[in-house]
Amino acid sequence: MTTTAPAHPGQGGALTTLTGARRLTRLALRRDRVVLPVWIGSIAALAWAVVASYQGTVTTAAERVATATFSAGNPLARVFDGPASGTELGAMALVEGWKIIAILTALMASQAVVRHTRQDEETGRAELLGSAVVGRHARLVAALVVASAASVAVGVATAVAIAAPSGLGWSGAWATGMAATGTGLVFAGIAAVAAQVLSTARGANAVAGGALGVAFLLRAVGDVTGTVRADGVYVDSSWPSWLSPYGWGQQVRPYAEDNWWIAVLFVGLALALVVVAFRLADRRDVGLGMVPPRRGPAYAGASLATPFGLAWRLQRGVLGVWAVGLTVFGAVFGSVGDSVETYVAENESAREMLAVLLPGAEIVDLYYALTMAIIGLAAGGYVVQALLRMRAEEVSGRVEPLLANAVGRHRWLAGHVVIVAAGAAVTLLASGVAAALSYGAASGDLATGLGLVSAAAVQLPATAALGGFVVAAFGLVPRWAGPVTWFALAAALVMSQLGKLFELPPWLLDVSPFTHVPLVPAEPFTATPVLWLTTAALALGAVGFTAFRSRDLAIGA
Amino acid sequence: MDHVIRAEGVSKTFGRTRALDGLDLTVTAGQVHGFLGPNGAGKSTTIRILLGLLRKDSGTVRVLGGHPWRDAVELHRRLAYVPGDVNLWPNLTGGEAIDLLTDLRLGGSGRRGRAARRAADRRRRDELVERFQLDPTKRCSTYSKGNRQKVALVAGLAADVELYLLDEPTSGLDPLMETVFQDVVREVCAGGATVLLSSHILAEAEALCDAVSIIRDGRVVETGTLAELRHLTRTRLAATTSTPVTGLDHTPGVHGLTLGDDRRTVEVEVEPEHLGAVVQHLAGHGVLSLTSTPPTLEELFLRHYGDELAELAGNGNGNGNHPTGTKKDAR
Fold first, then answer.
1. Among the listed ranges A180-189, A255-264, A517-526, B79-88, which one has the minimum average pLDDT value?
2. Are A310 and B93 a contacting pair at CB < 8 A?
3. Contacts of A307 in chain B (CB under 8 A)
4. Are B288 and B242 in contact (CB under 8 A)?
5. Per-domain residue ranges for chain A?
6. What percent of chain A has pLDDT over 70?
7. How do beta strands B58-63 and B3-14 pair?
8. How far apart (Å, rounded) are the C-alpha atoms in residues B221 and B308?
């Protein structure tokens, strides 16, 4: 072992391991010249839209106080948005807007790192580059430089989009930009570590996404168990929020405190992760992960040797991760349900506000309906990811030997579709049951808890409709299936979480399947939307099956 | 007279690229039929149309008497395919991938028949795994290119079918394994099966094929048995004679004559129809030794691609005798 082994940027030694980093950075920027500007532009545009809609709806000082009081006092707002930070308009808008900025920035940065590291190794491009005059660490450096630059760009663009049109002042806008950049840097670091440990790009992206989920969960717990200050418009989060980089962004409190010192946390964690990633990179071979490959069976079991069996083998890992993740999510949100109820029972004004929001509904019912709406969207994420596996299999040429065999196209497609449909149902139910049980355990009212599983079940038709859309896109426009379906999911997320705030026209909201889901159990169950969604799912699926039957198979790379 | 594959006037375009341009291909039962052409000539596109993975734009195609697009599944039970560039499921072992691909073909046949066929396939598969020296317990992600290719070969050749479609099946194989491959192909043919072997390795085609079709720019420019094709090409003669050879340079059908200093060693290329006359001429000078080398497949092949070679060499005047005029990638 040489003393200069853990070379990383900013450290003068071991320059040889970085040879070529500059060229690779240019290559990465060239490859991302469309993707990254779209991410950056979208994030900034959404930040602008949140602020603008607040300016349009909350105009008088009295309205500001009322809104801030509501979001400070309402545990639902604390779980889903974050800690209220006073009555400044910018502060209020960014408490609500942070989730979009943080989630999208984290995804952008982590995917950029994985794209230029592990994905290159998986496709063999890295080997080609590695044989050229390129240092061992050059690729990782290039990926991190690109992701960091994109994160800084998000910060600047967001700050400009917040301050320039609104006239709210620059210091809070820059503080928000700093928080966005910091979040991007941390998740670039997480992705850099994941790309060393896991041997597939899909796995590395899943770990980074999982880390984002954990970060969201930690701060949700910290914020809901936090304390409201005497003025009633300000929440001090409890310690779990401080364990989460997502939470740090909220603790910056733009337009309220502008806590610039939190930049130290972001940069410190990001640097630590980068150091870990480089140390790991020193200990492994190109193309391999940290886990050594094991030998396996010399013969296939009977269950593998059918299209369905193979599809299950390919799909079970993704399903397992999502099912466990959403079950944990459900359990955590369920356990918080009781304190939501307690709070509202003690708080007159919160009760009144909820009565306005949805008259006659039990608070715990509404809480569950809103929680499960999020879980439903997350299950939509599973459906999109799992169904797009079909496209990945096709593009990589692994479908060809199957269809050149005695396997009909419909049979192959059906194998994946059935597993994903069943997987979505299992995931939603597991999440709903976990939420119900943990609510029951916390409140002692297991009967009410179990009744709430319906809130999860009712998400399934909407999730299925999204799945039908993916299958249709796969059949009709295979090349665009990935971007189109992820965009559809992102649009559904924005409509569900911010649709009311943006005052989007009803016809536009109607496009998303998730806006049709009845708020069971807060609202009574209605069969009509469920039937329509199921019909849409089946019709779209049929279109996809028919189109796939009559199109060319994508061949090779 | 039994045509296992019959394609007439098949065309296929991808966007603006014309991959196949009126391709005709006929493969007779029991043949090993070489399908020769350089990269990008349209070999793989043709095979994928024969498999019903791609849809032809025009023309007619019959495989084993069936319609490759409509009857895909039924036909695929009766044929096996070995692609030249194999991408396997990284988390399956090689053995699992082989079994998956062989067992899939048996789906749909009756339970009893399936068990019997599976047992037969498994025996054959074990034998081939042994002969190709493949370790079936390793994950596909850890295989080298050659070993991935062996997985595809074993999966394809272990099947007991009527037709084998092999698309550059030996890319990445070492010479030892190449020999094993040739043995196995001869065995399946001895069993009465038909093989379409797409290749650009001419020695391999020469060793195995009964007939060849040469493809260029999406159309077949030459087809026939090797004997027929050889007949179209010059034979190389080398002889030593007892008296100095004279007059040969004016004999019709003679090319590339080289004479030794004493005019008693002769090397010459002769057009097939003049071969008899030249041999008689040499006999008049008292032949001490005579070797006759039939044209190699390479020479046949280069007749159709000679102009391209000339172009690559930079002396651009080689307008060969192939029917198509321009080449799409000519610079």
1. A517-526
2. no
3. 104
4. yes
5. 15-289
6. 91
7. antiparallel
8. 15
Q: How far off is chain B from A394, nearest CA to CA, in Å?
A: 11
Question: Torsion over CA of A65, A70, A71 and A73, rounded to 10 degrees?
Answer: 120
Which residue of A293, A310, A403 is in closest CB contact with B100?
A310
From CA A41, how far away is CA A51, in angstroms rounded? 16
Q: Tell if the CB–CB gap between B155 and A396 is shorter than 8 Å.
A: no
Q: Are A520 and A454 in contact (CB under 8 A)?
A: yes
Q: What is the enclosing helix (H) or strand (E) of A378?
A: helix A363-395
Q: Report the alpha-carbon distance of residue A99 to residue A233 in Å, rounded.
A: 20
Local structure of B33: helix, strand or coil: strand
Token pair listed for A57: 């709806």
Task: Specify the pLDDT at position B317.
Answer: 43
pLDDT of residue A304: 83
**CB spacing of B104 vs A298 below 8 angstroms:** no
Contact A70, A350 (CB under 8 A): yes
Contact residues, chain B, for A547 at CB < 8 Å: none
Measured in angstroms, the CA of B259 and the nearest CA of chain A are apart by 51
| Distance, CA of A55 to CA of A94 (rounded, Å) | 12
Q: ipTM for the complex?
A: 0.76
CB-CB: which of B76, B96, B107 is closest to A304?
B96
Alpha-carbon span B66 to B74, nearest angstrom? 9
Give chain B positions within 8 Å (CB) of A397.
Answer: 83, 85-87
CA atoms within 13 A on the CB side of B157: 29
C-alpha separations of A307 from A42, A408, A414, A419 in Å = 40, 9, 9, 11
Residues constituting chain A: 557
- All structural domains of chain B, each given as residue ranges with its CATH number in brackets, are 3-226 (3.40.50.300), 234-293 (3.30.70)
Q: In terms of C-beta distances under 8 Å and separation of at least 24 residues, what long-range contacts does A120-126 make, across chains too?
A: A121/A286, A121/A287, A122/A199, A122/A200, A122/A201, A122/A287, A124/A287, A126/A286, A126/A287
Q: How far is residue A318's CA from residue A71's CA, in Å, rounded to a whole number?
A: 36
- pLDDT tens for each residue of B146-183: 999 999 999 999 988 999 999 999 888 899 999 999 99
Who among A199, A295, A404 is closest to B81 (CB)? A404
Nearest by CB to residue A300, choosing from B52, B87, B103, is B103
CA distance B122 to chain A (A): 9
The answer to pTM > 0.90 is no
Separation CA A222–CA A227 (nearest Å): 10
In chain A, residues with a C-beta closer than 8 Å to the C-beta of B56 are none
Q: What share of chain B is helix, strand, coil (3-state, %, to 5)?
A: 40, 30, 35
Of residues A51 and A302, more confidently modeled: A51
